[in-house]
Amino acid sequence: MITTKEQKRAAEEISSSSNVIGKGTVLEGNIETHGNIRIEGKIIGNVRSKSKIALGNTSHVEGNIAAQNADIEGEVRGRVEVAEMLVLKATAIIHGDILTGKLVVEPGAVFNGSCKMGAAIKDIKLGENGNRAYRTEEARAI
Fold first, then answer.
1. How far is it, in rounded angstroms, from Cα 1 to Cα 140?
2. 3 state SS of 137
3. With bands split at pLDDT 50, 70 and 90, how would you rate the model's confidence at 113?
4. Band of the pLDDT at 19, cuts 50, 70, 90?
5. What is the arithmetic mean of pLDDT over 99-125?
6. Residue 39 in contact with residue 47, Cβ under 8 Å?
């Protein structure tokens, strides 16, 4: 039988794992991970993480992004939902709506879409085919 201590350790190992999609890589399909992910290549599909998503300055994502935290230096064409803090670096280009707890925008970043901050995001759902990646107070009202 697995003890609570072993379950906690296993959960920590999963959430501390890292994934990298390298520069020059093109991936079609959705990505879901419990750990961190860094993207330098091109993704055609949605990206979800229960941890942090980091998009390098050569990255290009055509799809929705959902994460606990995110740093974006590249280009995103889709909705960006971040539970805690979203950082748009100077080279970031966002074409889509943003839903986040906190937002940091460096001078030079480009953002075309609507933004809603401070929404009470409950948790990130992995393995669901719906358009919304989070359960929010806003979603319950709809």
1. 37
2. helix
3. very high
4. confident
5. 87
6. yes
| Residues 52, 80, 125: CA angle, nearest 5 degrees | 65
Burial class (CB in 10 A: 0-12, 13-18, 19+), 135: middle
pTM of the full predicted structure? 0.76
Q: Which token pair is 131?
A: 């358009």
User: What's the rounded Cα separation, in Å, for the pair 110 and 117?
Assistant: 17
SS3 17: coil
β-strands 134-136, 121-124: how paired?
Answer: antiparallel
User: By C-alpha distance, which of 88, 83, 123, 75 is closest to 100?
Assistant: 83
Task: Give Cα 55 distance to the centre of its chain.
Answer: 9
Round to whole Å and give the CA distance between 24 and 41.
5
Q: CA-to-CA distance for 39 and 12, rounded, in angstroms?
A: 22
Nearest Cα neighbor of 104 from 129, 126, 86 is 86
Q: Where are the domains of the chain?
A: 17-141
Confidence tier at 126 by pLDDT (50, 70, 90): confident
